[in-house]
Design a protein that fits this description.
mainly alpha, MetI-like fold, 10 helices, 0% strand
């Protein structure tokens, strides 16, 4: 509760400072005060512009994020458990990992077109590696003693997976999921700035084209709130699923 109070106090202080500095030293088209940004957000919400673009952006980022998780978690488990898979699949992924996702946007457009598939594919690509690497690290850090005990007592592969592997790697998986949530938001902005005709990124570009700075700040604030809410949701899921962990290590 104290941490939450301190966070609110810090945010309120920053907003007040922003309001004062913006009104005293900058014209609106350079730095609009937060009160005007809030008015703009309210207007965009009431006329439906914000919800229309936000809905499209949410579909893209959620689809890309969950596709990445669905592929990365099994791949990370396989590469961490079996050396042969790590030497093949892992080697290919290590070659691809240094390639920036931003550099693939033009190629994705050429291969997959300007539709939703290319945008979702780039977001999924960027979100994949953090989840994969953390899952792989979780498997490699499983205590061998736990595996031996499970095998000694005659438990099958199913029990080994559900009672040892899954429980051991979950903290690592959620670390990757939290980081990838932020990466997915960043790539959402990138793909919508380049090749989109809708979404919050496209709205941001349109506002910039007409020098509508309050609208630009409104879009930026919404992107920030998306990232903040995504982190809260993943953290809440982690606390709900990994209930055996002490509260101080979460």
């Amino acid at each position: 509760m104290k941490r939450f109070t301190r966070t609110l106090a810090t945010i309120a202080t920053l907003v007040v400072a922003w309001e004062i500095v913006a009104r005293l030293f900058f014209p609106i088209y350079i730095l609009p005060p937060p009160s005007i940004v809030a008015e703009t957000l309210l207007r965009l919400t009431l006329d439906g512009t914000l919800w229309q673009n936000l809905r499209i952006s949410l579909v893209r980022v959620v689809a890309g994020y969950f596709i990445a998780a669905a592929l990365a978690i099994p791949a990370g488990i396989a590469a961490g458990w079996w050396k042969a898979i790590d030497h093949t699949l892992g080697s290919v992924l290590e070659l691809l990992r240094p390639v920036p996702a931003l550099a693939l946007i033009p190629l994705a457009i050429v291969w997959l077109g300007f539709g939703e598939v290319s945008k979702i594919a780039v977001i999924a690509y960027a979100s994949f590696f953090s989840i994969y690497l953390n899952t792989q690290a979780g498997v490699r850090n499983i205590d061998p003693l736990h595996v031996k005990v499970m095998l000694i007592y005659g438990n099958g592969t199913r029990d080994l997976v559900t009672k040892v592997i899954i429980y051991s790697i979950l903290p690592y998986v959620f670390t990757g999921l939290r980081y990838s949530a932020a990466v997915a938001i960043v790539l959402l902005v990138a793909v919508e700035l380049v090749g989109a005709q809708s979404g919050l990124g496209y709205f941001l570009v349109q506002a910039q084209s007409f020098l509508q700075t309050p609208e630009m700040f409104a879009a930026i604030v919404v992107f920030g709130m998306l990232g903040f809410c995504a982190n809260l949701l993943v953290a809440a899921a982690e606390r709900w699923i990994i209930r055996w962990r002490p509260e101080e290590v979460r």
